[in-house]
Design brief:
Strand content: 5-15%
Structural class: alpha+beta
Number of domains: 2
Radius of gyration: 20 Å
Order of helices and strands: HEHHHEEHEHEEEHEEHHEHEHHH
Helix content: 25-40%
Bound molecules: cobalamin
Number of helices: 13
Strand order of the largest sheet: 1-2-7-4
Length: about 325
Amino acid sequence: MNAVELTAALKEESKRLGFDLAGAAPAAALSEDATRLERWIADGRAGEMGYLAERIDAYRDPAKVLDGAKSILMLGMNYRTVEPVRATAGQAMVSRYAWGEDYHDVVRRRLGELAEFHRRLAPDARVRGVVDTAPLLERQFARLAGLGWIGKNTMLIDRRLGSWFFLAALLTTEELEYDEPTRADHCGSCRACLDACPTGALTGPYQLDARKCVSYLTIESREPVPEELRAAVGDRLFGCDACQEACPWNRRTPATSERAFQPGPGMNPVELAELRSLDEEEFRRRFRHTPLWRAKHEGIRRNAAVVLENQKAAPGGRAP
Ligand code: B12
């Protein structure tokens, strides 16, 4: 098969496997972006996310993710389902991406099938599928593969799907037919995300200080939430969608038919009393295969206490 035929077959199969976006880019080193990442880390903006600094060399060069990588097929999977139900006193909000099954598991399964399909078409090829956790600058490669532009909230945005999609990558030692990079930036003079960020973590267009980001504070950080940021966490138990909910490109995007991402029972919103009654084993059983498992029982208990504190302080028990 030549590069054009192989790329067309992979894109068609990725669609059949539930990916909504697909585009190919050369697996070239991204030195400028990696330097930005290095500077961001040096400024302390990565907080406790030490794994970024530990693998900075790999972030520079995708050949460190798959030796001999020539091409990357970037993929996007829509996760928008129903609308968030606002929490009232005694309830808390979980961000949309975490309502259903853990996307790492769902996407990895599909990537595995796509890699198998690729090997059948090109038996000599080496292929690797990655989602989120590998040292690959996914948004930057997605832009180079024509999937969308990096918005002022640092998310990758597509004109049809907004930013409500996960990214994944299939690296291959084969040549593919490359798509045109997305050059246009459709944010224009809009600053809705910057204004909506509850903690000012978006310190400027395209600039995020993770240490102040509610998503980081409720998922990645193992420390108590800093006093001065607690009220701004509001009723958010896990993750934050404020900069996405405010984005005009996210208003009228289509919902996915992917069953795995449909909200699980009691996820939109969450009942805090029930959550706090769970012991370790019950928490594991309930959340082991959801994104909430990343924060562990301790992290979720910490976040629940902050939400309750905010609701006590807020008139009518509804935290902002
Ligand atoms: C670390 C990380 C986080 C951190 C830091 C986020 C960040 N913006 O860096 C935290 C924990 C805060 C986080 C939060 C979230 N994340 Co996250 N995260 C990642 C991860 C693992 C690495 C991102 C990274 O490299 N950050 C490093 C810093 C330096 O990047 P940056 O601040 O964006 O800066 C870059 C660009 O902005 C650009 N840049 C800098 N200055 C300028 C200036 C201009 C003019 C331009 C154009 C560009 C530019 O260069 C920088 C370096 O490359 C990626 C997966 C991956 N492997 O890529 C997922 C990923 C980006 N996250 C994702 C999601 C869904 C989220 C959340 C929405 C989850 C939630 N609901 O809570 C929030 C959104 C918060 C936000 N606005 O970013 C998705 C995004 C999908 C999409 N459509 O874009 C990804 C791709 C995971 C996936 N596989 O789907 N995340």
